[in-house]
Amino acid sequence: MSLRSELSRRFGDAFAALGLDRSYGEVVVSQRPDLAQYQVNGALAAAKSAGRPPREIAEAVVERVAGDDVAELSVAGPGFINITVADETLARHVAALADEVGSARSEPSRRILIDYGGPNISKALHAGHLRSAIIGDALKRLFRVLGHDVVGDIHLGDWGMPIGQLIVALELRRPDLPYFDPEYTGPYPDEPPVDIDELSELYPWIVRRCRDDAELADRARRATLELQRGREGYVALWRHFLTVSLAAQRRDFDALGIDFDLWYGESTVRDRLEPMVERLVAAGVAVESEGALIVEVAEPDDAKEVPPLLLTRSDGSYLYTTTDLATVELRAEEGYDVVLYVVDHRQSLHLEQVFRAARKAGIAPPDMVLEHVAFGTLNGPDGRPFKTREGGVLLLSDLIALVEDAARRRLEDADLAQDYPEEERERIAHQVGIAALKFGDLANHRLSSYVFDLDRFTSFEGKTGPYLQYGAVRMKSILRKAEERELRPGPILAPEVDRERALMLTLVELPDVLARAAELRAPNHVADLAYRLAGDFNRFYEACHVLREEDPKRQASWLGLVETTLRSTTLLLDLLGIEVPERM
RNA sequence: GCCCCCGUAGCUCAGUGGACAGAGCAGGAGCCUUCUAAGCUCUUGGUCGAGGGUUCGAAUCCUUCCGGGGGCACCA
């Protein structure tokens, strides 16, 4: 149990003994580190219902709680209880940290599916795809560390209008290909007719043309319908698009260090669509409106207007609402307790509609959690979604190259790097660049739309991913040198120096922060702790020269502290998807 | 028009109903014969968009207004 929850339990007991709700005893990290390490504010809140002055309650609580493991307890101001724990207690919790992380989970183990990434297969990944992938991956790692059974699903956009548009685009360019000939009965060529570059160029081109040309847009809709009805040439072409696109996207996700357990997509549920729609119609859940099928999802007690969900187009073709609903059905059958949709906040209404329809139609059981983990957009310096100077989108692969270049330059400026083998320099540049990218994103709260600033992502000083790696590298270096001198980490002693104590206090926050980050689905809390830990370590490093320490027991203790800090930092960085090099 | 999100230091952003609102960058002053200076120390900088309310206590909850972004049926 974490130090904070252990203290909370004791203060809760004390409040309970006074006939007050034990939740008043919640201990929090002090807002005033100059006064105390922890504080309890419950006496103030309890005063009214107890009919006693807050200070009196606080005094009574303090009297009951006093013990060896608490060094200082005092009542301050209007009724705050200030707590300073005994150094021995602190050291004991640092030593037990590894066990406490495992018990940070606040709920029973659940089967969780995280839907993230979600790229459309009609184009290469660009900067706009970054957030869902990074945030979803971090949440997957977090829930997994907390002991849940977690599955990540990329949920490809591969069965909707974009494919129909691509089919039409290719037909306009290369009408001679056999895929478009209704008379042709196959077999179709094994080689894809396009590569990823052509695909990436084709898609924006056709989207623009469809926007200006209603007839062409209609043709794309028809192609979509025919694909969904199984027209062979189109299906063959779709497979090619999928192959070409996935190969490129896999490369980009690999470079980011992001993987998926399931590479499902809209098309995964294509055989479910027709029966599901028929069932919804038969059940009276889906009704005809203006030629299309809709599901009314408004509830009588809605504070807001919730428009109906559009289930099918009037030509009978399917939209992403259809595939999303069928995907809920698939996930329900596969027995997930919780499904987290890590999707852009602009889709909140859509997901709300899908979730409601799934409940209404009995597709999702009542106890299955469907939750939209929304995030803000990545904007350029002008406050609008990020574009390159030329006005195009920035490809993810180019973005990765940019941060790697910056890391390589920084490495070349450092004296140490000259004797690093070429291969290691490249690996470090990659790890550092990715760290800058991921930390730069994850340090922000997911809901805020933040400004993408290349200078910020390529400067590695201050609150950045590389700063965290640098701290960890320093820890590794100390431990490596200690090893060479046959110095071993020993039992962690009570801290004597302020900066040592400060480091320990931050360390023991770990289980609480993980629990909170999971509860809020907010990886920035993980990022924040990692940053504070690195800062505390760097200050400890300046003040306490581990390898030169003369007292062997103190030195062994410090080595243990460094080792624990490294383990914690590595864990936190791993949760953020950031690797730590051996040196940098 | 209705709904959602946002508004915090010059810039980019944190902030769990609690005490004196934080960090990084930028600006100023220092620290490398010492475990990696991608580091550390000190410092300048704020009517938390504005008003009202709830509360012992509000950046945080409610409400009105102002400003910005987004969404609202055949795109995803």
Strand order of the largest sheet: 1-2-4-3
Q: Give the number of domains.
A: 3
What number is the mean pLDDT? 94
Shape: globular
Instruction: Give the CATH topology of the largest domain.
Output: Rossmann fold
Question: Please, what is the CATH homologous superfamily of the largest domain?
Answer: HUPs
Strands, count: 13
Radius of gyration: 28 Å
Largest sheet: 4 strands, antiparallel
| Strand coverage percent | 5-15%
User: How does the helix and strand content classify structurally?
Assistant: alpha/beta
Assigned CATH architecture of the largest domain: 3-Layer(aba) Sandwich
Q: What distance separates the N and C termini?
A: 36 Å
Tell me, what is the CATH class of the largest domain? Alpha Beta
Unreliable spans are: none
Helix content: 40-55%
Q: How many helices does DSSP assign?
A: 21
